[in-house]
TrEMBL record:
It comes from the Eukaryota. GO terms for biological process: post-embryonic development. GO terms for cellular component: nucleus. Gene3D superfamilies: Winged helix-like DNA-binding domain superfamily/Winged helix DNA-binding domain. It comes from Timema poppense. The keyword Protein biosynthesis does not apply. InterPro entries: Homeodomain-like_sf, PAIRED_DNA-bd_dom, Paired_dom, PAX_fam, WH-like_DNA-bd_sf. This is Paired domain-containing protein. GO terms for molecular function: DNA-binding transcription factor activity, RNA polymerase II-specific; RNA polymerase II cis-regulatory region sequence-specific DNA binding. PROSITE patterns: PAIRED_1, PAIRED_2.
Amino acid sequence: MFPDSLCQQYAQVNQLGEVFVNDSQCQQYGEVNQLGGVFVNGRPLPNAVRMRIVELAQLGIRPCDISRQLRVSHGCVSKILARYHETGSILPGAIGGSKPRVTTPKVVAYIKDLKQKDPGIFAWEIRDRLLSDGVCDKFNVPSVSSISRILRNKIGSLVHHPSGAAHHPHLYNSIYPTYPYPSAAGSMPHQNGKLTGMGGPPSPPGPHMMSPRGPPPCWPSSHSVTDILANAAAAHHHAAAAAAAAAGLRATSTTCPSGGQHHSPGGQMTGDPTQNYNYYMYLQSYGSGPGAVHNTAALAVMNGHHGLAGQTTAL
DNA sequence: TCAGCCGTCACGCTTGAACTCA
DNA sequence: TGAGTTCAAGCGTGACGGCTGA
């Protein structure tokens, strides 16, 4: 169990801007995939890498090239891009937890009522009634097996619940009121504080986000990674500087283990995309903390400086 | 025809809320 | 009431198969 930032410390970037891993250092914290990239099984990629994937895709780099460049499996690249296109978010979903309870006291009481009125009623009939009577919708109707379990375990011993039972806290849409990654909450394309894509149709991203919807983000024609990176280097310099401006406040206000050795306190960046990527790593290293809120904002700023602002805002 | 790309899915894993039990 | 267990989320990887262009 290691935070992303811990393993990320062992992901390095060579002069080609490729992510590589010092095996001897990383072995104890993560695994190395077929491409030589480091990952922690069961844990999401660092936000910095996720941002990089989206950013490279917007630069017109093909997913297969992104995969090789970042040493992330193409399946993962595909998944992240698909999620981004669908939800507008580069952030991983909420890991862990249980499904919202559907057998709320209200539902149990209703099932009990149905059973009392018609002792011979089948579980699937109860399920249909719950739907047709509007007690549940298709998203939170208990399964037949759940209803059977209720009939078996709860009906006989049902106790009266306070009148507020209808406001059970585990009802749908209340189970995940906020994004579980506090660091990212502020940067999510939520509406009303709810995570898009969860518990309902994804909401379109806000204007501050790169829009994934709509026309395919006008992916430019394919170029080689090196070509595009070379062409983008200059723009990237400004972008990274802007990103640093966005994130630098936090970076400078928090205690940096590296003592700011890799980056000047103001987030000054060089035009070297390699170092820019290091900056991503830096962001990620503090991404698990409150500073991560700047990540997506920084990306948005960066895209503006990539000359994609027109595209993204028009999408 | 074939190599490369891409979407999809199974797999093993981590995580955290709900549940169970002493 | 607190600790341990269960369950169902999401994660990235790797493999498979369809599609496409040379």
